[in-house]
Amino acid sequence: MKPFDYRSPADAADAVRSVAGNPGAVFLAGGTNLVDHLKLGVVEPDLVVGVAALLPGEVEELGGGALRIGAGVSNSELAAHPRVREWFPVLSQALLSGASGQLRNMATVGGNPLQRTRCVYFQDVTTPCNKRRPGSGCSAVGGWTRHHAILGASEHCIAVHPSDMAVAMAALEAQVRVLGPDGERVVPFVDLHRLPGDAPERDTVLGHGELVTAIDLPALPLARRSAYRKVRDRASYAFALVSVAAAVEVEDGVITDARVAFGGVAHAPWRAYRAEEALRGAPASEASYRAAADAELADARPAAGLDGGNAFKIPLLRRTLAAVLRGLAGEDAR
Amino acid sequence: MNSDITVQVDGVPRRLTVDTRTTLLDALRERLGVTSPKKGCDHGQCGACTVLSGGRRVLSCLVLAVTQDGAEVVTAEGLAARAATTDGRHDTDARTATDARTAEERHADGALHPVQRAFIDCDALQCGYCTPGQVVSAVGALEEFARGWPSAVTEGPGAPRLDRAEVAERMSGNLCRCGAYVNIVTAIQQAAGTGPTGTSTAGTEPAGTASAGAAR
Fold it and tell me: Which of A79, A92, A236 sits opposite B169 (nearest CB)?
């Protein structure tokens, strides 16, 4: 591991100055991803700036059913928070489906969305990877693609974003509060993550030195009827092959409103606007669920691979979406 | 790049100078001689290095020691002493005064935490390599459960019941290559007082129950 300096700044503004002024500096919060990458040589910073102790660690009620979640809140505390469980069950379920008890205690709300892909080629510094070393090529294209993207990928990168929490946040229209060298700004969660295009080295729209300080959840009454379902190779402690976050409002057997996002299928948490559009005004029925999946997956492009590729994700995601919506509609279905 | 830190390890303040690259796991094992946390994968995938920091179970292989200045760390070696105090926290002054002993001397008195006792009673181990991480993780998991924290298999908004599926899900971050899971679940239930009483090994429930439950 390359030597680095460590700094524990007094406050968030100090932390931002420390990182913004040094191209080789990184923030360290829970460390569950970064410390591993330091060992693997995926990142080689000159300066590590510890921020876990100075980020807000509270969940604050903003009134009217909205919440402000400090970036320093742990994944486990957020999952257990009574208001989150009551108002945004999809978020609690997404958090609990991720990682392990130990990792959820360490991982922070600010750091979780910024974790890097678990693409094996990205983590293996002996293989070409455009995300790790721009221009070196993509080893996943034509390689092992079971865990790779079917939506929004490019010829330069087919990696997927690994976070479960982020999928729920995308569905819930969360807002990310960011402190940077030029002051504060708010980024809609659905705009935080980029698609790879020709610059897969950039995961998000954040600039160097910008620090997530909180994530706001606006009031969303329909989220009380929401759920997260994750499909993976073992029952616990594994990343998603596909996942679905959904919230619906059903009146007289008709879906009047819906929020849907997919995980495990794209470089970003995938907000399924076309599926939502197909669901609005449709009867709460199997045919509607299938039609919503078809609308969203019309542009899906599976990746061929040494392991047989990942075309299986399309029917798997279609069935998972239907199962989640069926469960949410419950006895209100037609 | 060195840094001076003071970490309370199993009730004893320890001062040391660490390279900023040193993990808490390496500081404990290689610098302080506290070898109960084990290095399994060293990448946060196996749970063998689990310790309590600030009362919460964490993976010491993914924690930089430099971030632990002032922290209270408890390993499997310190669980019994921690349990002996009423609020689960150490009386620092008292421990420091009495604890000029080595770690070996400290646990030579044979005191065990109820979770450790249950692991022995239930034969919840084979080779034992993952066991210190398992018992620390179980202690953390039971405290999380006592706070009412849900897991991925908890159904509904109420307080969960500690059935085998709950234990298996909450302990999924601790791998056992010997496959002692069946008795590990039983031991943790026994320690929590929710398991079948008077049984020292599996057999009260089919071995498949835990995994079938966790797959819900």
Answer: A236
